From TrEMBL:
Enzyme class: hydrolase
Pathway assigned in UniProt: Organic acid metabolism; glycolate biosynthesis; glycolate from 2-phosphoglycolate: step 1/1
Organism this protein belongs to: Microcosmobacter mediterraneus
Family from the record: Belongs to the HAD-like hydrolase superfamily. CbbY/CbbZ/Gph/YieH family.
GO molecular function terms listed in the Swiss-Prot or TrEMBL record: hydrolase activity
Name under which the protein is recorded: phosphoglycolate phosphatase
Record EC number: 3.1.3.18
Reactions mediated catalytically: 2-phosphoglycolate + H2O = glycolate + phosphate
First and last residue of the signal peptide: none
Domain of life, per lineage: Bacteria
Amino acid sequence: MKKTSIILGKNTKFKNIFFDFDGVIAESVSAKTEAFRDLYLPYGKSIADKVELHHTRHGGVSRYEKFKIYHEEFLNTPISQDGIEELAQQFSDLVLNKVINSDEVKGAEYFIKKYASKLKYWIITGTPTTEIKVITDKRNLTDYFIGIHGSPKNKKYWTEYLIGKHQLKREETLFLGDATTDYDAALFSNLHFALRENEENEYLFKDYHGLKFIDFYQLEKSIKNHLTHNN
């Protein structure tokens, strides 16, 4: 795995942070893994196992894209857009309350609130935009973010869109993620990246040697000299 394009130098100062949500702000990754498995278990354990494995290896990819793959490649069954929408609604029904009520990643709210007056925040996630806005509203987080963005647009689209719209400097922008889609978007847009480590992504990032954190207290300690708060 390649290193991020921008090197974290001693003079680097972060002014902007892009947050993924599941696995970064909330401990909600397992809820979605279980939901995918539950949806495909009626097709047999082997299909459910394949779906679960694919999902865990492609965290952050839109559920709409995944449903198409799972039907057309795993089940050899064409699926219409209406069929995808129906599955997406079933998925949402299974996970919405679980995600809303999931534990926070340790220190997430502390960090978000502490630096909200000094840093600019956005959420970029694979969750549908309408759904993630409900989740952040219910968790009383919405007002801390300038924008909250999800599927159907992908993360590479959103990083470039936000950089252009808000005239952000890439060297001042940090992407916090736990999935390969987060890392790929950071590379694509030449941003700094910090990996939130967990058991599900350990094998995916075994060759990653960049900035890492388990919780936000560790992240704060690692980047405290790079925050505008300290200027």
